[in-house]
Amino acid sequence: MSVFGSLIDQTEVISILKDAVEASRMVDNKSQSMTNTWLFTGPPGSGRSNAAIAFAAALVCKDGGCSKCNDCMSTIIGTHADVELIKTAGLSIKIDEVRELISRASWAPSVANYRVVVMEDADRLTESAANALLKVIEEPGLRTIWLLCAPTLTDVLPTIRSRCRHLSLRTPSTKAIAKLLIERDGVESSTADFVARASGGHIGRARRLATDSTAKENRSNIMKLPFMIKDVSSAFKAAQFLVDAAKADALVDAEKKDEDEISKLKEAWGATGSKLVAGGAKVVKELEKEQKSRSTRMVRDYLDRALLDLSTLYRDVLLVQSNSVDSLINQDLISQINQLAQATKPEQTIRKIEAILKTRRNLAQNAAPLLLIEALMCELR
After folding, report:
1. DSSP-based three-state secondary structure for 167
2. What is the rounded end-to-end Cα distance, in angstroms, of the chain?
3. Measuring CA to CA, which residue among 314, 375, 323 is closest to residue 350?
4. Rounded distance, CA 93 to CA 58, Å?
5. Best label site of 48, 139, 294, 353, fewest CB within 10 Å?
6. For residue 101, which of 133, 134, 123, 127 has the smallest C-alpha distance?
7. CA distances (Å), origin 21, targets 27, 47, 141, 145
8. Percent of the chain, pLDDT > 90?
9. How far apart are CA 8 and CA 166, in angstroms?
10. Could you give the CA distance from residue 19 to residue 16 in angstroms, rounded to a whole number?
11. pTM
């Protein structure tokens, strides 16, 4: 199986990337299939980052992406000498980070034919960082390939996207995701079908729901919240529960990672007991600041995921109100969904869905999470 085997339901994109890899290997390349700057877009879970990493592996692999050689495997895990993988831990990518990246990207490849830079969250570039990046992708080096990823074209500066070849990935079908979970992870058929629908087309989310009992329990608790809201007081309690749960999940995920990072950094700066060499304390403080930013982003990501789950509930309510029950996602809550559908009107359900989507947008704009969720729960009351 090639490195592109990890891309689900993306036949057209895979074909384009394979043609580009072939063109990149030609000595006298006059084909239009290969270019030095690419922009991968697609909804969360569509695999845009996976597509970019697979493409990077194929470009540095001597066999065009066999998935078995050292070049392929080291690219996928992020350790290849000629592949720079930029994963955004914080809320934004700042200009200092981009300047350092540009400097490294200018180096000649050491073992492969190309030096490849994969930026997973190009939509998180600050304006100054995006302008700095623009200067280098206007005239990229002959042996440097830039692979940018973002949710949509509008999330990237027009001046940047106009200089990239655009590939749009679609949300994988429920059937394709379920098939992958059954064949790759040995998930039971009924469970695979449910999590594929519940994930909203997000492959990683589907796998986590299928294999992690804690994730499944968390989702179940979130889905019960709308049925517990009877008045303003219970709406505020539901909001507090949701925010606290997001913070707890973020803390669990971040705690061990933070400790390991601090420990390794201190070791690198020659820590002896509680003392660091000159300049070490400042570097540690900068890392702690980055970790705090990452934790903030993780809380927002968990809340966003919870809001997506809630939107599937009201989607099901609207389907019942429309006498269409063939594609319900939350079959396990069918009795509560029927009660909610009978107690409200379709236009009310639509307003609730719109309120959830509005909250997601505001959350992405760094508004105060608790205030946003409290306002939303009052609207869902």
Report:
1. strand
2. 51
3. 314
4. 27
5. 139
6. 133
7. 12, 19, 17, 12
8. 31
9. 19
10. 5
11. 0.75
Question: 272 φ, ψ to 5°?
Answer: -125, 105
DSSP state of 3: G
CB 347 within 8 A of CB 298: no
Pick the closest to residue 295 from 97, 90, 123, 92 (CA basis).
Answer: 90
Q: What is the DSSP letter of 64?
A: S
pLDDT one-digit tens code per residue, 74-94: 999 889 999 988 887 666 788
253 compared with 78, residue with greater pLDDT: 78
DSSP letter for 151, please.
Answer: S
- pLDDT tens column, 131-178: 888 888 888 778 899 999 998 888 888 889 899 999 999 888 889 889
Work out the number of other CB atoms within 10 angstroms of the CB of residue 348.
14
* Per-residue b or e along 154-177, where b marks 16 or more CB atoms closer than 10 Å to that residue's CB: ebbbeebbebbbebbbebbebebb
Contact indicator for 122, 129 with CB cutoff of 8 Å: no
Q: What are phi and psi of 332, to 5 degrees?
A: -70, -15
Rg of the chain on CA atoms, in Å: 23
pLDDT score recorded for residue 218:
86
Centroid of chain to Cα 126:
18
pLDDT at 342: 92
Q: How far is CA 228 from the centre of its chain?
A: 31
Question: Please, which pLDDT band fits residue 203 given cuts at 50, 70 and 90?
Answer: confident
Are 143 and 169 in contact by the 8 Å Cβ rule? The answer is no
Mean pLDDT (whole number) for 290-304: 79
